[in-house]
């Protein structure tokens, strides 16, 4: 196994260990055992548990944000919503351990907490960029568009995460049903805020 392959293996098993055990309870020896390497070899790749966790968080957020990017072709507001909700839950289905790390409780370690909050900010910014594709919002308050997109992104992120948490406990529900329920919830509010009379098809 090359050094790059070993590093990739470490990151993969570390995601499972952190998601299952939690940051505080997880130990470098536990990660090393799961990766099939010695603890000194693990420290050759990562200087500390905080370094390992922060690196993993950045990589996972990169992966999630890539999946939240806008579709290449312009689509209607509902189609955009449905397409992105589908992408989010498809990513969660493929990366359950990563999702639990990104959206679980932030670790108490200050350096790791910074990586966690930076990841949250990036996720919100990516969702806000999607809301920015909606031509106009009919808000009941005078709020500049950038801040409106940000608050809608935070609300959508919270709703997505809450439903994903419920799905974690109800894994007999197929992803397609979870996507439809989430789209129903978000669209009923967003439809009232959009300037057009677009209806769900």
From TrEMBL:
GO terms of molecular function: DNA-binding transcription factor activity; transcription cis-regulatory region binding
Annotated DNA-binding residue span(s): 27-46
SUPFAM superfamilies (alphabetical): Homeodomain-like (SSF46689)
Keywords: DNA-binding
Xref: Gene3D superfamilies: Tetracycline Repressor, domain 2
Residue span, HTH tetR-type domain: 4-64
Annotated PROSITE patterns: HTH_TETR_2
InterPro entries: Homeodomain-like_sf, HTH-type_TetR-like_transc_reg, HTH_TetR
Descriptive protein name: TetR family transcriptional regulator
């Amino acid at each position: 196994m090359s050094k790059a392959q070993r590093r990739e293996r470490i990151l993969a098993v570390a995601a499972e260990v952190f998601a299952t055990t939690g940051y505080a309870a997880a130990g470098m020896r536990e990660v090393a055992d799961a990766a099939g390497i010695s603890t000194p070899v693990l420290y050759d790749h990562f200087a500390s548990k905080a370094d390992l966790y922060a690196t993993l968080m950045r990589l996972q957020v990169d992966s999630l944000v890539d999946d939240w990017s806008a579709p290449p072709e312009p689509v209607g507001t509902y189609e955009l919503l449905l397409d992105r909700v589908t992408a989010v839950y498809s990513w969660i289905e493929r990366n359950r351990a990563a999702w639990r790390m990104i959206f679980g409780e932030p670790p108490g370690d200050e350096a790791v907490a910074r990586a966690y909050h930076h990841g949250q900010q990036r996720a919100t910014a990516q969702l806000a960029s999607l809301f920015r594709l909606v031509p106009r919002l009919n808000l009941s308050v005078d709020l500049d568009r950038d801040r409106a997109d940000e608050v809608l992104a935070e609300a959508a992120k919270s709703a997505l995460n809450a439903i994903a948490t419920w799905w974690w406990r109800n894994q007999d529900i197929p992803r397609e049903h979870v996507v439809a329920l989430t789209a129903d919830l978000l669209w009923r509010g967003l439809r009232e805020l959009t300037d057009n009379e677009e209806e769900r098809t």
